[in-house]
Amino acid sequence: NTPRALNFGAGPSPLPLSVLMKAQTSLLNYEGTGMSVMELSHRSKPFMQLMTHLKSTMRELLEIPNTHDILLMQGGGTGQFSAVALNLLAARAPRRQAYYAVTGSWSKKAAEEAKALGVEVVEAVNGAKELGGYTGIPPAGAWRLPENGGKAEEEVAYAYYCGNETIHGVEYSMPETLSNLNSFLPVSVPLVADLSSNILTRKIDWTRHAVVYAGAQKNIGISGVTVVVVRRDLLDTATPEHIPLVLDWRVCAQADSLYNTPPRRWGGLRGLDQRAAEKSSLLYRTMDESDGYYRCPVDPGARSRMNVVFRLANEDLETKFLEESVKTGFVQLKGHRSAGGIRASLYNAVELSAVEALAKFMREFQAGHP
Ligand code: PMP
């Protein structure tokens, strides 16, 4: 009997045991249908009910108002890099300009994809240039955003940011840091947020966000589904150009997210801001109390509650840390290959007890390798 791994993966993330057990028991017979959910027609009543339930749960948990529609799409976060550009160029035609806040690898990729698709990308800010690396959210003075008034409304299609940079462990401390965007950006310009790695962990201000999207594989469930919340007025417009069907928000909305065969099986989760803060602060505290043995490269004000990144004195010691962590039962603590170091991802399904075990391991490792 292998014990459950203490999984700190950056996505896919661990799933609650109760969800896995339920999936196991209903695998051969979902809700008395004599079939698994994977075998059900996506037009069948039980499947439609599952979709409706899913959307109403999302609406309730995230307090999404009726001004916004919930779409369930495929193609992951990466698909939305393209979808955001294509749909908003169409909805906001003839505007072609968009402001991107680049605070890590994911917003950088999104900006590059938009540029490749014909968006005139303006870098609202670039963390690497301002701070010498993606180690925080640059201060208000460093931002370049369109000024209020007619010009922005005429020219700017949308503004874009990534709420939590999964690789660099940089998170906007909403709503405070968001005021950078809020105070400079005209309200008439739609604001887009990639919340792939911190959705369902805190409240979202829907009066300010026109589009929010997130892949499900971190804080919600498993990969295959992408949640896209779009303000309805952006779905009303006539599209002058063809958008690939699987990326077209309007096609998805009109078909109630069942235009084509969707992927199956979700684990619905209640994400708690407080729990995220409690888990992450335990690790940051362990670092702060380590006399510099563990170093977090991220500014205290932008330290992610979801992806806690840290370094040891040198790479040899980091390798030893990772080897011993595996022997102790931890998996997937290695930092992203582009960033190095250690990364512990603390999505909703990661138990506090696992984080406590990690903090204890960190202290013991330090004592054993002074
Ligand atoms: N945005 C963020 C913030 C991410 O963390 C990721 C994936 N880790 C993506 C976008 C890309 O998502 P996907 O792998 O679902 O395409």
Automatic annotation (TrEMBL):
Q: Where along the sequence do coiled-coil regions lie?
A: none
- Signal peptide feature range: none
Q: What is catalysed by this protein?
A: 4-(phosphooxy)-L-threonine + 2-oxoglutarate = (R)-3-hydroxy-2-oxo-4-phosphooxybutanoate + L-glutamate; O-phospho-L-serine + 2-oxoglutarate = 3-phosphooxypyruvate + L-glutamate
Task: List GO terms (cellular component aspect).
Answer: cytoplasm
Supply the enzyme class, top level.
transferase
Please list the residue ranges annotated as the Aminotransferase class V domain. 7-240
Annotated keywords: Amino-acid biosynthesis, Aminotransferase, Pyridoxal phosphate, Serine biosynthesis, Transferase
Pfam annotation, one family: Aminotran_5
Pathway(s) it belongs to:
Amino-acid biosynthesis; L-serine biosynthesis; L-serine from 3-phospho-D-glycerate: step 2/3
E.C. numbers? 2.6.1.52
Q: Name one GO molecular function term.
A: pyridoxal phosphate binding
Its needed co-factors are: pyridoxal 5'-phosphate
Any GO BP:
L-serine biosynthetic process
Cited HAMAP family: SerC_aminotrans_5
What is stated as this protein's family in its record?
Belongs to the class-V pyridoxal-phosphate-dependent aminotransferase family. SerC subfamily.
Question: What name is this protein filed under?
Answer: phosphoserine transaminase
Q: Which organism is it from?
A: Piptocephalis cylindrospora
Its ancestry begins with:
Eukaryota, Fungi, Fungi incertae sedis, Zoopagomycota, Zoopagomycotina
